[in-house]
Each structure stands twice: as structure tokens, then as C-alpha cells.
Design brief:
One of its GO terms (cellular component) is cytoplasm. Residues 1-29 are annotated as: Disordered. Pfam families: LRR_1, LRR_8. This protein has 3 domains: 1-139, Ribonuclease Inhibitor (Leucine-rich repeat, LRR (right-handed beta-alpha superhelix)); 177-290, Leucine-rich repeat, LRR (right-handed beta-alpha superhelix) (Alpha-Beta Horseshoe), CATH 3.80.10.10; 292-353, no CATH class. It contains 9 helices and 11 strands. The protein is elongated. The chain has helices at residues 15-26, 75-79, 147-150, 273-290, 295-298, 302-306, 317-328, 334-341, 344-353; strands at 5-11, 35-41, 62-64, 86-88, 109-111, 132-134, 156-158, 179-181, 202-204, 227-229, 250-252. The protein is α/β, with parallel strands linked by helices. It has an 11-stranded parallel sheet with strand order 1-2-3-4-5-6-7-8-9-10-11. Helices cover 22% and strands 11% of the residues.
């Protein structure tokens, strides 16, 4: 039975720290193929190709190949990294990823930013434990259609600085997603069911310039959203439902030809976000008053009712009209009108999604 050498971490850049390890690897009694390394750092080595067959690839959990001159990654070597958790390929010259990346069933973090990749292999859907995907600064024109069906554990998706003109509808199935960054693309719209992303905290779709002109009304049901950046697009009106984002702490809208709300509401760096949300919510209430549609369709709650999350019982039409008239005449505050307008079950939704406090 051949003798084996096991190292937890090998960083070939750190000459002094690795001197002992290198001596062990070069010692006569040991064979190169017996060396076991859990963390392998080959960053900034000016590598044009890689050959790590001398290592036991099955035990590597963290592989850093960033900042090299790689144009491709060998299929066979990737396929043998069965226990890989972190793969860093950023800042190379890659035009595609190997199909064998689908063999990395334990992969949690994949960084392929700053390459020349035009598409992701369909096999990436097999990386079902993936939690973070960074594909910034590439040439992506689309994402896999079924990305949301398989990558169910994804928490952070950053695809900024690409050539995307849409996000696949399946992305709305990523219910664990917390960060979605798609700025500096050519996005023309966002999926209508974006409200399914109930854990989303940060949404950045800025700098899509003339392409992005509207946002879906369902954006107001992102109950966990704390940061929303839609700056430098071609948006003239924000959805009134944004007034219901109770956890929203930062809203960036500069560089848009905004009419609703008036652009002067964002006149200073420290503008009053609560005032903006109150303005939008008040508009939403007034629109609902003049609309013949039911509250559940107007506020995008039909899906929640369908899932039996909330009751469809509402106050009587006569009471609603009386309260509505008082509100429009100034006799009721926004809080009081909203409280009377919805049934108890519906009030729970509005309390969770509202920037205001009920009496």
C-alpha cells in the first residue's frame, strides 16, 4: 500500500509557508499521485492551462484558479472534483464552462466573473446545492430556462455587466434567493411573478438604460426587500405597490424620467423615503377607489387567496363607500381608511407589507 501525504491547504504563491510542504512532496518515498490537498490556491500564476492530475482530486473542496490566462477547463479534471464546494474561476479568458460542471453535486459557491462566457451549460442545473453564483462581466445573452427549477438553494445571483435582455420566468421559483443583481444589462422587463421571491432583500436592476421602462406591480409584495436600485433606466412611473414595502430602507431612482412620483421628491441625497412610500400608497388607495376591480386583483393578492393564505371576506360595500367618501373628503387618515377597507384577514397582509402602523 503506497504511502500518502495529506495537506489541508496548498498555496503555491506563498513560498516560505509552503517550503515544508514542497519538500515533503518532492521527497523520494512519496509519489505525487498520493498527495491529498483540501484547499488548492493557484491564483495569479499566469497559467494558460492546468494539470492537477498529480493530486487526489476527490478530496479538494476549495479550488482557486482566478487571475490566470486560462481559455478552457479540462472536462475530465472537473468531473473528478466530486467533493468541491468552492470553485473560483474569475478573471481568466474562458469562453465556456465544461459540461462536466454538472458533476459537482456539492458545489456551493461558483465565481466565473470577468471572463468571456456567452452561455451557461444546461448541466449547471445539476449543481443543486449551489448557494452563490457570480457571473458578472461576461457576455451572457441568456440564462438557462430551467435555472429556477433546479437551483433551489441559490441565495445570491449576480449577473451584472452582461447582455441579458430578460430573466427566465423560472427565476421566480428561487424562493431562497436573497440577492439579485442584474444591473448593466439590456433587460426589457422583470418576471411578473417576482413576488414569489419572498426572501429577496436586495434587488438591483439599474443601468439597463433605455431598455427597462416599467416594473411589475408585484414588486410591492416582496415583503423582505430592503434595497431596490432601479436607477438609470427609462422608467416614468414607479408601481404604487412600492408604497407597501415596509422593510425598504434604500430606493435609488436617479437617472430616470420619473413622473410618478415627482422627481423632485428625490431632490437630495437624504430624501424622505417614508414620504415617497406614503405618496405611492395614497395613490394606490385612490386608484382602488376609482377602479371597479376587486381589492385582491388590484393589489396582486389573488394568488395568496388562491393558496388559501388569506380570507376573501371583505367589509360591506356600503361601509366601504362611506369610509371611501370620508377618506377622500379628508375625514379619515390613510391608516384609518385602509384599516376599515380590508377585512381582518386581509389586514394581516397589509400590516406585514406596509410602511405605516395601524391604529
Amino acid at each position: 500500500m503506497s504511502e500518502q501525504l495529506q495537506l489541508r491547504r496548498l498555496d503555491v504563491r506563498e513560498e516560505e509557508e509552503n517550503e515544508e510542504e514542497k519538500e515533503k512532496m518532492n521527497s523520494p518515498p512519496l509519489k505525487a499521485e498520493a498527495v491529498k490537498v483540501e484547499e488548492l490556491n493557484l491564483t495569479a500564476m499566469f497559467l494558460e492551462s492546468i494539470s492537477i492530475d498529480s493530486l487526489d482530486l476527490n478530496v479538494i473542496s476549495n479550488l482557486n484558479l482566478s487571475n490566470n490566462n486560462l481559455v478552457s477547463i479540462p472536462e475530465s479534471q472537473i468531473a473528478r472534483l466530486l467533493n468541491l464546494v468552492i470553485l473560483d474561476l474569475r478573471s481568466n479568458h474562458l469562453k465556456h464552462l465544461p459540461n462536466s460542471i454538472g458533476c459537482l453535486s456539492k458545489l456551493k459557491i461558483l465565481n466565473i466573473s470577468c471572463n468571456h462566457i456567452e452561455s451557461l451549460p444546461k448541466t449547471i442545473e445539476n449543481c443543486r446545492y449551489l448557494e452563490e453564483l457570480n457571473a458578472n462581466f461576461n457576455k451572457l445573452k441568456s440564462l438557462p430556462d430551467n435555472i429556477g427549477l433546479e437551483l433551489v438553494n441559490l441565495q445570491k445571483l449576480t449577473v451584472n455587466s452582461n447582455k441579458l435582455d430578460f430573466l427566465p420566468n423560472s427565476i421566480t421559483l428561487l424562493t431562497d434567493l436573497q440577492v439579485l443583481d442584474a444591473h448593466l444589462n439590456c433587460l426589457r422587463s422583470l418576471p411578473n411573478n417576482i413576488d414569489n421571491l419572498t426572501k429577496l432583500q436586495v434587488l438591483n436592476v439599474s443601468q439597463n438604460f433605455q431598455y427597462l421602462q416599467t416594473l411589475p406591480e408585484s414588486i410591492g409584495l416582496l415583503a423582505s426587500l430592503s434595497e431596490l436600485d432601479v436607477s438609470y433606466n427609462n422608467i416614468t412611473a414607479l408601481p404604487c405597490t412600492i408604497g407597501c414595502l415596509s422593510k425598504l430602507q434604500k430606493l435609488s431612482v436617479e437617472g430616470n424620467p420619473l413622473v410618478v412620483p415627482p422627481i423632485d421628491m428625490f431632490g437630495s441625497e437624504h430624501y424622505n423615503l417614508n414620504a415617497v412610500k406614503e405618496y405611492l400608497f395614497e395613490m394606490m388607495m385612490k386608484q382602488s377607489c376609482s377602479s371597479s376591480s376587486s381589492p385582491k386583483s388590484k393589489f396582486g393578492l389573488g394568488k395568496l387567496v388562491k393558496w388559501k393564505t388569506f380570507s376573501t371576506r371583505t367589509t360591506s360595500s356600503r361601509d366601504s363607500r362611506d369610509d371611501r367618501d370620508q377618506y377622500l373628503d379628508g375625514g379619515l387618515s390613510i391608516d384609518q381608511y385602509r384599516y376599515s377597507y380590508f377585512s381582518e384577514a386581509w389586514r394581516g397582509v397589509i400590516v406585514l407589507a406596509s410602511p405605516f402602523v395601524f391604529p
